[in-house]
Amino acid sequence: MSLLDYVILAIYFLGVLGIGFAARRSIKTSLDFLLSGRSLPAWVTGLAFIAANLGATEILGMAANGAQYGIATVHYYWIGAIPAMVFLGIVMMPFYYGAKVRSVPEFLRLRFNDSTHLLNSIIFALSAVLIAGVNLYALAIVMRAMLGWQLWFSIVIAAAFVLVYITLGGLSSAIYNEVLQFFVILAGLIPVVILGLKEMGGWGGLEKRVRTAQGGGENHLHALQGTGVGSVTNAIGANWIGIVFGLGFVLSFGYWTTNFAEVQRALSARNTSAARRTPLIGAFPKLFIPALTVIPGLIALVVVKNLKDTPDGGYNNAIPYLIERYLPSGILGVAVTGLLAAFMAGMAANVSSFNTVFTYDIWQQYIAKDREDEYYLKVGRVVTAVGVVIGIGTAFIAAGFSNIMNYLQALFSVFNSPLFATFIVGMFWKRMTPKAGFWGLLTGTFVGLFVYLGYKFWGIFDFGSDLEESFYGAGAAFLSDVVVSVVVSMVTAPKPDSELRGLTYGAGTREAAADLASGDEAWYRKPALLGGVAVAISLLLYIPFA
Fold first, then answer.
1. What burial class does residue 3 get, using C-beta atoms within 10 Å of its C-beta: 0-12 exposed, 13-18 middle, 19+ buried?
2. What DSSP character marks residue 227?
3. Which helix (H) or strand (E) covers residue 474, if one does?
4. CA distance 343 to 61
5. Cα–Cα distance measured from residue 291 to residue 230, given in angstroms and rounded to the nearest whole number
6. In the chain, N or C terminus with fewer CB closer than 10 Å?
7. Phi/psi at 2 (nearest 5 deg)?
8. C-alpha to C-alpha distance for 308 and 160, rounded to whole angstroms
9. 163-219 pLDDT, tens digit each
């Protein structure tokens, strides 16, 4: 990097801190700090919703998948994201927002009991710091590649900036920074795609070179071919059942509808209408992000010799190598800034959700009840620092995986899939009992962990790839949770309808305050219309890549 590149990077970091200081002026209560006072417009929360996901999961992880598995990686977007985001906006947000819960675990406390609430709070807190560590590690890879910094030093510096701006401005600081980061990410990655395709001779040239590349082949160029039951030849090694049920239903819905790092952005919206539109607005840029992740992965497979075996990252190095190869001074600074923005957004999303769950769902509910609100505001700031420190430690766990997407999908299959089962049964079946909520969630989590350990370490299960394991591990966790929930519900007592109003179908609704603001009733803002268009586009995009 040249002096100009460092200047661009410095301007960005100053902007990040400036947003933190500006947001600090609006922080007067714990709700302001942890949920932005429920005051943000839909376009802000919608962009923050998708930017929060544009961390290591997207940039390094999906580019790594693009190199390792090819075009089939688009399943994570068009099957594995859009339908779930639409479902969240249309079906689940009225329950979340209408109940005025401050977190996803708090919804479980109202629907089930304290035991289920505490179990989910602990599980989520653990998963949040593990995923924050993934983003920190990914950021450190880039800083080491572009700046020459040591891994540990890069991790500490990146964590320090995230800590400062979240501690200053809370969730508002994180969200407004995520909006800024969304555009910085685009500015950094679009030149890489354009210059890479130019060297390949366009899309047709890239296809020809992928067919003959080491680790590539014809299977790398198709999303749906080779997914028949009993005749699996696609690069992922999974048939359509695993893809549709394991990824498209369990993993996808488990992540997008119950992961508080995402749902928190919608809960910060100014009313129910804005909350419902938050994931629907985010769905439209999500449709086209494969152009910025999967395509660079394919280009890296062609131009980087032995990408799989490159030191300190393996497939995770796809994006950093392309940045180094294609971008001149000035544009290089923008690209590096875009990557740092992506990883800081991903880490900030997990840290800000961690501090909310720990403060409200663990500390306030079970350790220090009925204190002054100022006390919980201080706890939230302290817990933010604790979450960042733990994230530094978990970053070194992520460093042991050559493809961080495999690691992330394993985490989602263990933590998110059983939680989704508990939610979906409890939300649509009012007969599900409080004890069923606890035992179903606990069983599903252990089953998901057992499948992963049985495949990775014990030799009990044999799958075509790490991703196939996550598909079937998620399915096993989901089904075991459902079965246990139904069985336990049959032998235990449910809550009366009066305690379930607004929490499950068939038990009545709660009145939603300020459901519509001026302009929210316009036809082009209808959630059903926005969701239907997003799903239709996702299906059409499959046609050229089938």
1. exposed
2. E
3. helix 466-491
4. 11
5. 31
6. C
7. -95, 180
8. 31
9. 887 777 777 777 888 888 888 888 888 999 999 999 999 999 999 999 988 888 888
225 phi and psi angles, rounded to 5 deg: -65, 145
Q: Quickly list DSSP for 62-122.
A: IHHHHHHHGGGGGHHHHTTTHHHHHHIIIIIHHHHHHTT-SSHHHHHHHHS-HHHHHHHHH
Q: Facing residues of 227 across strands?
A: 232
Q: Which two tokens stand for residue 66?
A: 């693009």
3-class DSSP state for residue 40?
A: strand
Q: What pLDDT sits at residue 511?
A: 47
Distance between CA atoms of residues 472 and 504, nearest Å = 28
User: Which two tokens mark 494?
Assistant: 């449910």
- Range with lowest mean pLDDT among 88-97, 473-482, 512-521: 512-521
pTM for this structure? Answer: 0.83
Q: Express each pLDDT in 208-264 by its tens digit.
A: 999 988 888 888 898 888 788 777 787 777 788 888 888 888 888 888 988 887 888
Tokens matching residue 493: 């007592």
DSSP of 268-298, one letter per residue?
A: TBSSHHHHHHHHHHHHHHHHHTHHHHHHHHH
Q: Note whether 317 and 217 are within 8 A (CB).
A: no
In the predicted structure, residue 518 carries a pLDDT above the cut 60: no
The rounded distance, in Å, linking the Cα atoms of 33 and 167 is 9
Answer whether 261's CB lies under 8 Å from 349's CB. Answer: yes
Residue pair 243/254 in contact (Cβ under 8 Å)? The answer is: no
Could you tell me which of 469, 412, 420, 418 has the C-alpha nearest to residue 445? 418
326 burial type by CB count under 10 A (0-12 exposed, 13-18 middle, 19+ buried) = buried
pLDDT tens per residue across span 384-397: 888 888 888 888 88
Instruction: Quickly list DSSP for 484-495.
Output: HHHHHHHHSPPP
Burial of 518 (0-12, 13-18, 19+ CB in 10 A): exposed
Which residues are CB-neighbours of 31 under 8 A, at least 6 positions away?
37, 38, 102
| 361 pLDDT higher than 50 | yes
Q: What is the mean pLDDT of residues 268-273?
A: 87
Q: Which of 412, 477, 420 is nearest to 443 (CA)?
A: 477
302: which DSSP letter?
H
Question: What is the distance between the alpha carbons of residues 94 and 531, in angstroms, rounded to a whole number?
Answer: 15
337 and 188 in contact (C-beta within 8 Å)?
A: yes
Reading the block at residue 392, the tokens are: 């530094």
